[in-house]
Amino acid sequence: MKIAWVTDSTVHNDESINKHPDIYVVPMTILIGDDEYQDGIELTPQELFKLLNSSDKEIKTSQPSIGIFQELYDQLAVSYDRIISIHVSSHFSGTVSSATQAAQLVDIPVDVIDSKILSNPLTELILSGIKWLENGLSIDEVIHQLKNKINRAETYVMVGSLEQLHKSGRMNGLSFFIGSVLKIKPILSIEDGKLSVKEKVRSINKGYSRMKDYFDEALSKRKVHTVSILYGLNKEDAQNWIEEFSVKYPGISFTANPLGAVIGVHVGENTLGISWFAEED
User: Fold this and answer.
1) How far is CA 248 from CA 237, 252, 273, in A?
2) What are the coiled-coil residue ranges (predicted)?
3) Is there a single domain that holds both residue 167 and residue 143?
4) Which domain holds residue 75?
5) What is the pLDDT of residues 80-129, one digit of tens each?
6) N or C of the chain: less Cβ packing under 10 Å?
7) pLDDT interval class at 73 (50, 70, 90)
């Protein structure tokens, strides 16, 4: 069977994704006032963050429509036998819902998967699935393996901008005011696809230290082979982390990966996070 992979633009769209002949990325929409932009096509993260800092217009994000997915699935049905459509967490966006409804309107079989994650971890899931298929696993076995891996993910993010978190509707006015006055930095965790406040710290350095503690704790329970350091525009901070981690954990691979424009709308350009998939017991 020939399999097509469909995802959305919250994926870390590096060469392994954008040059793969069987991977198709559907752009999210970024709304700036009355203007609409296709994420990653008409607006880059750098351009977005510049607008965030200079524009007083309301900036929001929107998932792709059912019709966009239906049209793509119909086009893929000409050349493929089946589609695996894997997307950003359903708790962050309605993208999984749009894809699921579109899948019911087409003739080709479509398996829609909620990754419960975003950015490079989503990329890693897709590439793992492709590798498993190449190694001879059946479609059903690959889907089972993907869901198993999804449940072994851990992600922690220190928000770079309380103001942007407030503007995007992810933080109420009182919490924003108190946090700004006290210079609080929330550390967010993604658990079962849901975003929650893991801890509140009073400095960036304390936040970095606590996220390293989370990683140490995880390593005391399970092995980890690869780790994604996630960043907004602060790639230098991410690289500094990688240098430090690589010395401490020489057997683990660390990569720096951008969070992307859609996520930047909510958390700001100075955001830094860490994400990994633990190995099976």
Assistant:
1) 17, 9, 18
2) none
3) no
4) 3-28+63-150
5) 999 999 999 998 889 999 999 999 999 999 999 999 998 999 999 999 99
6) C
7) very high
Beta bridge partners of 22: none
Tokens of 173: 């006015």
Which has the closest alpha carbon to 101: 70, 59, 61? 70
The answer as to whether 50 is a domain residue is: no
The residues that bridge with 187 in the sheet, in sequence order, are 158, 199
Residue with tokens 């897709």: 126
- Give me the number of domains the chain comprises: 2
pLDDT score, position 43: 77
Closest CA to 98 of 171, 29, 51: 29
b/e burial code for range 14-43 (CB count within 10 A of at least 16 → b)? eeebeeeebbbbbbbbbebeeeebebbeeb
Compute the C-alpha angle 253/40/101, nearest 5°: 95
Q: DSSP string spanning 155-215? A: EEEE-S-HHHHHHTTSS-HHHHHHHHHHT-EEEEEEETTEEEEEEEESSHHHHHHHHHHHH
Q: In sequence order, what E strands does the chain have?
A: 3-8, 23-26, 29-32, 35-38, 59-62, 82-87, 110-114, 153-158, 185-191, 194-201, 224-231, 253-258, 272-278
Helix (H/G/I), strand (E/B), else coil: 98? helix
Query: Mean per-residue pLDDT for 227-249?
Result: 92
What rounded mean pLDDT belongs to the chain? 86
In a domain, 49, yes or no: no
pTM for the structure as a whole: 0.89
pLDDT at 167: 53
Helix 95-103 with 66-76: angle, nearest 10 deg: 50
Q: For residue 277, how far is the Cα from the chain centroid?
A: 13
- For tokens 């350095």, the residue is 205
